[in-house]
Amino acid sequence: MLDIIKKKLAALGCDAWKLTETVNRGWEFYVIRDRLDQNRATEVKTISVDVFKSIENGKFLGSASGEIPPTASEEEIDERLAALLYQAGLVKNPYYTLQDKQVDVPEKREPVDVEQIAENFFRAIRSVEQTKTEDINSYEIFVSEITRHTLNSNGVEYTCTYPKSTVEMVVNARKDGHEIELYRIYTSGTCDAEKLRSDVADVLRFGRDRLTAVPTPKLGTGAVVFSTGDAVEIYNYFVFRMNATMKYRRFSDWEIGKPVVENAQGDIISVEAVSSLPNSSRDYPVDEEGAVIRDRWLIRDGVAENFFGSRQYSQYLGLQDSSNVYNVRFSGGKESAEQIRRGDYLEVVEFSDFHVDPMGGDIAGEIRVGYWHHDGKITVVTGGSVSGNMLEAARTMTFSSETRQFDTHVIPAVTRLEGLRITGVADVE
Amino acid sequence: MKAPFSPYLNRITPALRALLEDLGRDYEYVSLLSTDSVGFSTSISQRSKNVSGKNMTTERGTVVRVYKGGQYSECAFNQLDTARVGEKARKIRCELEKQFAMLDRAGMSAYETGMLADEPLELFVEKETEQLPEKTDLSTLVEKLTALSGEGVKTIPGALDCITSASSTHISKLFLTKNRFLRQSYVYTEASIAAYAPNEQGEMKIVHRGVSGCCGPEILEGLKEKLSELPETMQDVLGAEKIVPGEYEIIADPTVTGLIAHEAFGHGVEMDMFVKGRALGAEYIDKRVGSDKVTMHEGALCAESVTAYVFDDEGTLAGDVIEIDHGILKTGICDALAALRLGTKPTGNGKRENYAHKAYTRMTNTLFDSGNDELEDMIASISYGYLLRGMQSGMEDPKHWGIQCIIDRGYEIRDGKLTGKVVSPIVMTGYVPDLLGSISMASPDRRVEGNGACGKGHKEWVKVADGGPYLKMKARLG
To answer: Which three-class secondary structure state does DSSP give residue B440?
Structure first.
């Protein structure tokens, strides 16, 4: 099919093109309590086509993207490609070129044993220690072998095969007729049984504690500590603002060589883009445009060092040797996790949905389970919300020297934001 | 004009029938859902322009559901050689057998379920539309969106850029079993206009409006009127203060009302959650969950919105369910398998992100009914509170009936009058029965919006619409 499309694009006089064929072979399992609700198998081939058209003698470049179904007839392929070429002429963006540097890393073609990975997940989950009062309500397992073949009109070509897995899990805890639940979604390359078991054990403990929770006091403002995957939202704020697209479109006002946080009094942010992280769900060395992903600092010692991004926006910013970035590693802070957890603070281990708006910096989340540390006492709390803004919070943000990996992100294990608004439910005693 | 049903699906129907027959030799029940949906999406700003022949609902593929010995299984694929259907059937059997062998090794047992009814029905519906996305003059459309973006930057105070976007899909779906042959074709379209500007503290603020409906790209003409509302909204947001956390009397505008409907008793009564014991709603049927002012409908038949289909992704006809009747919870919404397990009837709410995804119980149109109170009277009745406008996002908590809504902005009301003070953003949280129980006034007008997408947990994104009138209630804001 790719050869047919290439020939047709040439016949249409297309100035430049990019093709991406992705084959996703997946196994899925849905379990209620310990019984199989449904099993599913999928095999989906996606052929994405990007066509480019030079406008006004190369002053502008138009582009349009679409898909050609694998079942498309020759006539339909003709129609779809002609439509794309027409559409490409409708959008005038400043001129840029497609990836032209040949890929200098080996292709990644190791087959993925979907069956074995799925079995490993089942064995890992079923080995979690459950009790009469804390157990797993339901879970879903998704395991895929993904093969992506990218090629463009400049002769750049690359194929990679990689695994991607997701487990969604709901945990219950109950006492005296009262039952609560907690929710987790884990994404990774393959099954890391030990990590999964350890995290689920933590969630079961949070569930047990939630049963004794009291309404969150009306604390006004205070320090909030993050130690779960929710903290990735905080760190994505920094990654987002180093993205060339966001910089070019003025969503980010950060500049190379300048501090990303003015008057920083807390720990200093450093983040490195890395081509590979162990068991990341996006562990491939070449991006979707055929650019090799090279390790580089995005922010070092609090100072913006490299923007990153797609070919188009990287060229607009004049970036050399740029690429998209999927895996990032943040450096740890000066103090240990134990030291970060000092004095009075609220550690929230489960939100309904924790969100940091990377553009505006607004922080928001409803508290499902938190531990309020006050005067040396620990009270489990629930209800109310945490809110604030990263522009302010980043100045006094501190984080642990220990780091922890959440799929594509290595981040400090414990993060502390000062002065967040804590909208409680109960009056403070 | 009628939105014509997919010629591709008509062409492969004999092959699908042959596949059904072949698999029927081994399985007690077999169904197929085949889709062929085409469309476009475009996004125009002053600094970037994109056009694409795909969007979140364009797709072509097939999912086969089979049943044997109390167990349901599915195979999804998008490659079908109509001359080699037997081979496809063998591949499906083989893949599922490999899965069952692995499940045996892992010691898994089945959640046994009865067999779906297969009552005879033939249906062929092509809904009306003025335009088809695949025939739309994108050149004119891009010109209009470009002009609107330019006008936005000129008229909206402080705007760094203004993004106009539109997408439209012509959906064709075919559902086939031994006794059922259903086909539907319809078009839905949505568009939005958003501008962003930094406030004095350097925080980027975004304002937006949208239009949507079960119709063709002709609806995009409504964007210009929406743009005229944005300058004032941006002014309000740029000058906004932070709210003092606390419990307030509030008036929710129709977008906030819709968000509350969606998060409170949308997700809260998705009955596949009842099967798992994950929803408190199961224990509250025929009990009070809101004030007398609260009546809530759910169903694809409730409004001609982005999700106004004729049958769902399991071949169940669309419905209109009264979930809450004057404060009393009457029923939930249900996909076909959850209905079997609960001994009830499906409501036409079995939806998939696309053919390759599992069907879950999902929302369609979730709407509060209107009342008789004028907005002015609602404002006059508040001594200290806020008129909340514009939704950002929300999160459900069906097990504990917590609710989280992130809202754009609040307009302060003191002694029955708007003071001109604006707060933004706002996190609204609370306990759903308390929130709905506090609803004391509802306006006569009702709006339905469908510019967003809804996930189940943190995945499985589908189009939904929601709305209602202005509602007065009490809520915790932070």
So the answer is: coil
